[in-house]
Amino acid sequence: MDSWINFTRFGGSTVMLTAAVVVTAWLIAGRAWRMVFWWCGLFGLGLLFVLATKIAFVGWGVGIRSIDFTGISGHSMRATAVMPVMLYLILQKTPRLVCTAGVLLGLLFGVLIGISRLILNAHSISEAVAGCVLGAIISLGFILITRHSPKPVLNRWLIALSLLIVFGATRYTEPVPTQRLIRGVALYLAGHERPYIRATWKMAPTLPNSPVDEHSSKELMSF
Questions:
Q1: SS3 at position 64
Q2: 92 in a domain, yes or no?
Q3: pLDDT over threshold 50, residue 222
Q4: 3-state secondary structure of 28
Q5: How far is the C-alpha of 173 from the C-alpha of 109, rounded, in Å?
Q6: Angle at 58 between CA 5 and CA 211, to 5 degrees
């Protein structure tokens, strides 16, 4: 279990947002402005989509009970969006088969991050799948849209330093408290004092407008 805990951190905001910034820096350094536009636009929309689904659930209880969906997995989305693009840029000068294999490896990494979220009970299957699908749409969409654009020339030392920074982030920095931030924003927007949580939301389908906290679960079970 510890190995999955350590592995899932690579999909966290600290690592993957750093990696997304690194990709942006590579594109800017190479003056690949069209690629910068599409990368920032697609990835930014992906982040907003994930954030919107989570705020909607925490603040208003918006979800799909039949498939246990309370919000898109951010870990899965980020990993599946960032890693294929990062490997695509690193391997752009290699034979097409090698570059394609790198993109597929990046997608596999994202899927494994999604699996880690399931094993750790952080997300349901529907949430992890949604994250992987959204991330794949972002990464593959970016690659297809910009496939004929001039590619940035990447220095191998810049690549090595960037990767050291990205994957060193999980060891030497604290995780970003994204869930706490989302909860604060959701409660402010919804005007509630207590957030919706999965357990009580699933047990109270007839109370869609009544947020309950962990302390209310015993009352609902005995009701």
A1: strand
A2: yes
A3: no
A4: helix
A5: 22
A6: 125
